[in-house]
Structures are given as structure tokens and as C-alpha cells.
Prior knowledge:
Elements: E1 2-6, H1 10-22, E2 26-30, H2 33-40, E3 47-51, H3 59-68, E4 75-80, H4 84-92, E5 97-101, H5 105-118, E6 126-129, E7 132-135, E8 140-143, E9 146-149, H6 152-163, H7 171-179, H8 188-203, E10 208-213, E11 217-222
Parallel strand pairs: 1-2, 1-3, 3-4, 4-5
Antiparallel strand pairs: 6-7, 7-8, 8-9, 10-11
Helix pairs in contact: 2-3, 6-8
Amino acid sequence: MRLxxxxxxxxxxxxxxxxxxxxxxxxxxxLNGEDALFYARxxxxxxxxLDIMMPGLDGIQVLQKLREMNITTxxxxxxxxxxxxxxxxxxDAGADDYLPKPFATSELLARVRAMLRxxxxxxxxxxxxxxxxxxxxxxxxxxxxxxxxxxxxxFQIIEMLMQKxxxxxxxxxxxxxxxxxxxxxxxxxxWVHISNLRKxxxxxxxxxxxxxxxxxxYVLEEIQ
Length: 224
């Protein structure tokens, strides 16, 4: 999946591109509406993530021009919480969804996946590692017929680990991905959720474990 990201804050744009690339998207980033319009006209993108307030052409004007050209690439707007009228105008202009700032990374990814599914782009609902199945639709972890229902944060953590089994994921990466790039939540909250996850994995007798690597992070591995 290839996305075009338009955001006039260079720091946030860099973060957004990193988030999507870390989740197996191809992401191009631009800092203004003129560049967004230029790139989006190529029709090579599966989805657009547009900030509403940008210099020159704003996000709404970009999408209006694209729709006038019969370019139907699905689009999600990033908005400030106070921009109520702009959100309505954006949806009327042909946007598929909007997400107020500040946002959690997990919600951003979920909304983009939902947007792409609505356009018949397939995103698998099941994630599998060593016969352990994570059902993205039901938030259940299943092994050999034994299922455990996960909380939202537990689901997001195990999803990250199952996407990169055998690879150590730093604690701060969990924080950025799940609680948001500007979150003030203490990192100990990751340990609490992983502790709960370990209990649920054990309850299914799944042959995998979440191992802590000192000064590095957490890794999902097969039990030897």
C-alpha cells in the first residue's frame, strides 16, 4: 500500500512517514498543498492523509481539486480539535474520514486501514506466528482452539510483536505507536500490559513467549 502524507509541520511529517513505513506502507511526505496536489495527481497512491491547515492550498482545496479531476483516491484529514466547520467541509469535499490532533498512532493506523478496506483494498484480518493466530476483527489471540480476548492496548502490543517476531522492539517504539508521538504516559504502562499478555498467552498453552531484553526492549519468540 502506498500513501501520500501532507503535513506542514516538518517534525510531525517525519513522524507520520516513520509510523507508516514501520507498518509496511510505502509513504511519501510533502509539506504543502501544492506539492500534495502535484503528487496526488499521479493516481499512484492507495490513500491520502492530508492536514487541513496548510500554507497555500489547504487540505480541503487539494481534495476538491482532485475530485474535480475524477481522482477518487480515498483521503483522511488530520484536523485540530477546534476545526469543526472545516471537518464538515472536508467530508463534503469527498474525504472518507478525519482524525483530530493529537492522536494515538494505533487509531491513525486503524482509521487508515478501515479507509483502505472500504475501497476494496485487502488488509488481512488474521496475523499468524508459529500457529498462534491474532484475529484483528475480534481482538482474540487463538492457539489450538483456545482463545483469549485482549484489551485494546494488549492487542496493539501483540500485533506489533507478531509483525516482527524475533526482532527486539524498544519500549519507546511501543509508546510512540500506541499512546501517540506526544504522549506523557509513563513507560511502565508497557510492562503492565505485557505482563497481562504473558498470562493470556500462557492460558492458551501457545508455544511462544514475550521476552524482555535488558536495555533493548521486548521480543516475541518461539519457546524452545
